[in-house]
C-alpha cells in the first residue's frame, strides 16, 4: 500500500494541469470562433462584390443599348414603328425591362436636378413648381442607379 500512495499525484498538481488544459481549450475555442466569423464575413464580402460586378456589367451593356432605344422611341413617335421592326423593338424593350432597365422622363413630371438635365428654361402660368414641359431624350435607371439623365425643357411658375 505504500506504493499506491507514491504513484498517486498530489491533488494540487492535477488541479493546475486541469486548469491549464481548460485555458488552452478556451483559447482554441475563441480562435475557432474568430476564424469562423472571419470566413463568414469574407463570404458575405465576396457575394456582395460578385453582385456589384454583375450589376456593373449589366449596366455597361444596357448603357451601350441606350442609343438603340432612343432610335426606337423616335421611330415610335413618327409612326415608323410598324411590321417586323415593331416586333423586334417590343422584344428588345421587354428584354431590357427584364434586366432592370427603367425609363423615366415624361412631360408633366416635376423637375428633379438629380434625374433631369435641363437644356431649355422658360416660365409659365400653367405650373406651380418647376416642371418638365418637354422631354427631348428619356432617362434610364438600373435599380437605384442612374444610367442616364433625361434631357428636358423646364418651366418655372411666373
Explain this structure to me?
The chain is of the alpha+beta class and 158 residues long. Strand 4 and strand 5 (145-148) form a beta hairpin. The strands form two sheets. Strands 1-4-5 form a three-stranded antiparallel beta sheet. The longest helix has 67 residues, at 11-77. 56% of the residues lie in helices and 23% in strands. It is elongated and about 100 Å long.
Q: How far apart are the first and last residues' alpha carbons, in Å?
A: 113 Å
Output the structural class: alpha+beta
Please bin the fraction of helical residues. Answer: 55-70%
Q: How many separate helices?
A: 3
| Lateral arrangement of strands in the main beta sheet | 1-4-5
How does the overall form come out from the CA principal axes? elongated
Largest sheet: 3 strands, antiparallel
Stretches where pLDDT falls below 50 for ≥5 residues? none
Tell me the total number of β-strands.
6
How would you state the average pLDDT, rounded? 91
- Write down the secondary-structure element order: HHHEEEEEE
Amino acid at each position: 500500500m505504500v506504493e499506491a500512495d507514491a504513484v498517486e499525484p498530489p491533488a494540487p498538481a492535477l488541479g493546475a494541469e486541469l486548469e491549464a488544459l481548460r485555458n488552452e481549450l478556451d483559447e482554441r475555442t475563441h480562435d475557432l470562433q474568430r476564424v469562423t466569423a472571419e470566413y463568414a464575413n469574407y463570404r458575405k464580402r465576396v457575394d456582395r462584390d460578385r453582385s456589384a460586378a454583375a450589376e456593373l456589367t449589366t449596366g455597361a451593356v444596357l448603357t451601350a443599348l441606350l442609343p438603340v432605344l432612343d432610335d426606337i422611341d423616335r421611330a415610335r413617335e413618327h409612326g415608323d414603328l410598324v411590321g417586323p421592326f415593331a416586333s423586334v423593338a417590343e422584344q428588345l424593350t421587354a428584354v431590357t425591362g427584364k434586366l432592370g432597365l427603367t425609363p423615366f422622363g415624361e412631360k408633366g413630371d416635376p423637375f428633379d436636378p438629380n434625374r433631369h438635365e435641363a437644356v431649355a428654361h422658360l416660365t409659365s402660368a400653367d405650373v406651380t413648381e418647376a416642371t418638365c414641359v418637354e422631354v427631348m431624350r428619356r432617362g434610364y435607371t438600373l435599380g437605384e442607379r442612374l444610367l442616364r439623365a433625361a434631357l428636358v425643357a423646364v418651366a418655372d411658375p411666373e
